[in-house]
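ok, trying the design again with the full structure, not the truncated one.
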């Protein structure tokens, strides 16, 4: 698989991107979007690397578990173009599974991860970002009237996110930054300096 993908290649996700963005950081396990069917996650294995592209869905943990069971030699997950997730709980559990299995995560050169894709990336024991890759964040919404900033800072939903990031070895500041960086229907791409300041990459 050629990982030197032009960022313009991401245009294939444009029809589903906006609908995914609204819910990709929502902490609601039962929520699913119709966009998932047209942008389902695909995993291709080559050697000791597994390449992921597409939207992260409710069956993410099963997909990852099945992949590892069939390919026990895999040590690295390469995120090629992951525009978000439609089930944040599954995404967090997927990241925890990656960490328990001792897998590393990489963002492909000129690839990208957005929103929930960033959270999955954080599961890696070691994490690296290829040249020209994009890391995009934004605030979350549950797809209705509930948005992150409408909740008290003491709300348990915030605590669930903060605890997840701390578990992944990422500073709590990253969560609060993402809420201010962009509204739920937009994306803010982090600079290389911000990526390392928030400890998203380990090398």
């Amino acid at each position: 698989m050629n990982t030197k993908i032009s960022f313009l290649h991401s245009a294939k996700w444009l029809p589903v991107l906006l609908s995914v963005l609204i819910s990709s950081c929502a902490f609601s396990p039962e929520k699913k979007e119709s966009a998932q069917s047209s942008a389902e996650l695909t995993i291709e294995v080559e050697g000791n690397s597994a390449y992921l592209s597409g939207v992260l869905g409710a069956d993410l943990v099963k997909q990852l578990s099945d992949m590892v069971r069939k390919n026990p030699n895999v040590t690295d997950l390469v995120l090629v173009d992951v525009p978000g997730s439609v089930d944040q709980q599954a995404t967090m559990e997927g990241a925890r599974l990656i960490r328990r299995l001792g897998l590393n995560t990489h963002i492909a050169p000129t690839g990208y991860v957005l929103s929930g894709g960033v959270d999955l990336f954080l599961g890696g024991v070691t994490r690296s970002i290829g040249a020209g890759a994009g890391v995009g964040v934004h605030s979350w919404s549950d797809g209705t009237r509930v948005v992150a900033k409408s909740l008290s800072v003491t709300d348990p939903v915030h605590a669930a996110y903060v605890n997840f990031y701390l578990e992944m070895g990422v500073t709590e500041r990253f969560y609060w930054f993402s809420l201010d960086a962009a509204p739920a229907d937009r994306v803010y791409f982090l600079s290389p300096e911000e990526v390392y300041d928030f400890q998203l990459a380990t090398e």
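Keeping the full-length input from now on. The longest helix spans residues 88-100.
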